[in-house]
Model the fold of this input.
Amino acid sequence: MEFTEFAVRVLIIFFPGMLATLVFNIFTQRKKQDYNVFITYSFVMGFLCYFTLYILIELLRMVNLPLAQITFLTYLFDSAAPIAIRDIVLGSVVALCLAILWSYAYRYKWMQRIARRLWISKQFHEQDVWSELFNMEGTPWVVIRDYEQDRMYQGWVAFYSDSYQENELYLRDVIVYENKSGKKLYDVPGLYTTRDHTQLQIEFQSGGEYYGEGPA
Done:
C-alpha cells in the first residue's frame, strides 16, 4: 500500500489516538477490531487527547506558567505548517492516561449504568449474555452438565472465551460426577471444555452469586 505525504502526516498527527485505542484493546483483551472501527476510534480519541491537552495547558497558563499552547488544528488543516513533535509527545502521554480511564470505564460499565439509571437503554454491556455473565465482578462457581458424555463438572471459572459461539471454559479445582446418578468420579486441578452448546447446561451455584477470586 502506497502512503502519500498527506497520509503519513495524518498518521503522525493522530498517533496519540491510535496509541489510546491500542492500549485500550490490550487492557480489555478485546479481539482484533474491524479496520474501519479502529480508524474511527483512533480519530475520535485523537481529537479527545488534543482537546484534553488544550484544556490542561490553559489551566496551567491561568496560574501563570509560561506554557505554549498546542497548534493541533493549525498543522492539521495547513499542510505547510510543520508538525510540532512536542504536541505529539504530550498528546501521547495524555492518550495513555485516557486509555487507562477508558479501560476502567469499560470494565465497570460506567456508560451502561448511567444509561440505565436515566432510562435511556437496557442493552447489555457485552455482545451477548455469555460475555455479560462471565465478565461480572468476581469469579463464578459453576456446575456444567454435559449430557452427551453423562458428566457433571463442578469448579470455578479461571478463563473463558469471548463469545457464546466458542463457549470455551477452563475450570479450576474441579470435581467430576456422573450426571444422571450424581456419583463422584474423581478430582482434577484443572479442566478445559468446549462442546456443542445444545449439549451443555451451565448452572451458577447459589443463584449465580460470585465468591471473590476463587481458591489459589
Remarks:
- Helices lie at 5-13, 15-27, 35-62, 72-77, 85-107, 110-117, 129-134, 205-208.
- Residues 5-107 form one domain.
- DSSP finds eight helices and five strands in the chain.
- The radius of gyration is 24 Å.
